[in-house]
Write a structure and sequence with these properties.
Largest sheet: 22 strands, parallel
Number of strands: 42
Structural class: mainly beta
Strand content: 35-45%
Length: about 550
């Protein structure tokens, strides 16, 4: 009996609770606080002991928690960013290179390997003025990460308009474009073909590249793989470098410049694989390409010794082509002036220049400041208007395996090759001297094809013809090779050798009347084995003597 009473005592509370539970509606609904939609939204699937498809409402994870080894606070910080460089969990996501020995690192570090100019807000549509954004890119890469400065700025496909001078405030800035195409009409510059810089700075330089230096040298700089549209430039220069050591511009297509490159001071400069199309009339300019150090660089003739920052050492021009788009009335395609030492010219093709290559010393104070060591190999200057190669007060000139061709109709109005001295012709140890030419073709000139006015020359194994294209009769100034005496040093008067050349009238449609070689008085010039069959006289002397063929 006691057991029955005890059981009833236990059951009475349970029965009372059960009567308090409301009756459930036998109908099943989707909506509402007790519907299936609500019930399924709170579910968690269990699969082999793992929860999947979990949803947590207002739950929080403290900052000390980790998920797969990454702190929750770092995940939260990056999950909230929208526009900063750390977005898309870049510090969290790992990049694992698929190479033997590759080491995983964060995606953020991987992305910063390449800096795009578009990281700084550049538009690149050919219409928007991108000057300020491009300048910000240069400043940004110079600031670096606080430890290093400089680097490569990548220009993806697009057209980038510059309307005022962009400067390069630190050494080691390298611009690399996506590539270039040979476009010859303005409209095509905005529709592809790689990366295009539109220089529209008018009378101001477009790119002033000095690495922040005002003396000595700033090392490193590159401009490569781009189109450059210079149609909107007036008297400004497209690319102006100062005090740069080891600067290189290569793989460029340049459209319609008036002044493309100006180098002031600096050393070890390389211009290679550059196509310059439709350059404008160079009259009144420093030249399409100008090498000089006596202007803004502040160089004077008292600090002109080799090794100072004024001296330009070792400039290389390789595989550079230039063709005109306007009639040339003056100026030079390549102009070489003060403090320039060792210019190596290889595989150049310069067409229709008034003066194709022009080098001169524009002072009479110190011969050390004059250009010297000119090296020309496989250089073609075609259809020269005035002179193909002009060297004044320049020492040590070598021209081999080249081609100097004057205008086909009228000939070069001066000479094809003119080597002379104005300021440094006299006085032992103070003379410009040394010209060596071999294996070269020289033709089409109104006057003499080759004029030599400095001592120490060798003219050998060349073909020289088509001189005196205008006059009906020959004269001493319309010969194949004209040698004059311009020094007062007795042993240096005309010291040189002319041997193994073929010299004479042009053949074909327009034969000319000309003599072979003219020798001034009191010269120490050796002649041998020259074939002058095409000439009226083989040799003409200043005293009136002639030597027939």
């Amino acid at each position: 009996m006691k057991r029955i009473i005890f059981a009833l005592a236990l059951l009475l509370p349970v029965m009372s609770w059960a009567q308090g539970v409301p009756q459930m509606d036998r109908r099943v609904t989707l909506a509402g606080p007790t519907g299936l939609n609500w019930a399924m939204s709170t579910k968690a699937d269990v699969n082999n002991g793992s929860l999947t498809n979990t949803k947590i409402g207002s739950a929080t994870i403290d900052s000390t928690s980790t998920i797969n080894g990454t702190s929750a606070s770092l995940i939260a910080q990056n999950a909230n960013c929208v526009t900063t460089a750390e977005c898309i969990l870049a510090p969290v996501i790992k990049y694992s290179p698929n190479f033997v020995g590759g080491v995983a690192r964060s995606l953020l570090l991987k992305l910063t390997d390449t800096v795009s100019v578009k990281d700084f807000g550049v538009v690149g549509d050919g219409i928007t003025d991108d000057t300020a954004a491009i300048q910000a890119a240069n400043i940004g890469i110079c600031q670096g990460n606080g430890k290093y400065s400089g680097g490569t700025i990548y220009f993806p496909m697009g057209s980038y308009k510059i309307t005022s001078t962009v400067t390069f405030p630190c050494p080691g800035i390298h611009w690399a474009g996506q590539g270039y195409g040979n476009f010859y009409t303005p409209s095509e510059y905005n529709i592809g073909g790689g990366a295009t810089i539109i220089c529209a700075s008018g009378a101001n330089d477009c790119l002033l590249w000095n690495g922040g230096a005002t003396k000595n040298y700033a090392a490193g700089g590159t401009l490569s793989e781009m189109n450059i549209n210079a149609e909107a430039m007036t008297t400004g220069t497209v690319l102006h470098t100062q005090f740069m050591d080891h600067f290189s511009a290569h793989d460029l297509h340049v459209q319609s410049p008036k002044q493309f490159y100006f180098q002031e001071a600096g050393s070890n400069t390389v211009l290679r694989d550059i196509n310059i199309n439709a350059y404008r009339d160079l009259n009144g300019t420093h030249g399409l390409i100008f090498l000089d150090s006596a202007n803004d660089a502040g160089c004077s003739y008292s600090n002109s010794d080799q090794g100072s920052s004024c001296r330009q050492d070792r400039t290389v021009l390789q595989n550079v082509g230039a063709g005109n788009g306007e009639t040339q009335t003056g100026g030079a395609v390549l102009n070489i002036a003060n403090f320039v030492q060792t210019v190596v010219m290889t595989d150049l093709n310069l067409i229709n220049g008034y003066n194709a290559i022009y080098a001169s010393c524009y002072q009479s104070t110190d011969r050390r400041a004059c250009p010297d060591f000119m090296r020309l190999t496989r250089v073609e200057t075609e259809q020269c208007v005035h002179v193909c190669l002009y060297m004044n007060d320049v020492s040590d000139i070598w021209a081999t395996d080249s081609y100097f061709n004057g205008d086909d109709t009228n000939g070069a109005s001066f000479s094809n090759i003119y080597v002379t001295c104005t300021n440094f012709c006299k006085g032992a140890g103070n003379e410009a001297w040394g010209f060596w030419m071999k294996g070269t073709r020289i033709n089409n000139a109104k006057n003499s094809c080759v004029f030599i006015g400095t001592p120490g020359f060798v003219i050998s194994d060349n073909i020289i013809f088509g001189c005196n294209m205008i006059a009906a009769t020959a004269s001493n100034a319309t010969v194949g090779v004209q040698v004059v005496n311009q020094t007062d040093v007795a042993l240096d008067k005309g010291m040189g050798s002319i041997t193994g050349n073929i010299i004479g009238s042009s053949y074909g449609q327009s034969p000319t009347t000309m003599d072979g070689i003219y020798l001034d008085r009191s010269l120490h010039t050796a002649l041998s084995n020259n074939n002058t069959t095409w000439s009226r006289y083989a040799t003409v002397g200043a005293d009136g003597t002639t030597t027939s063929n």
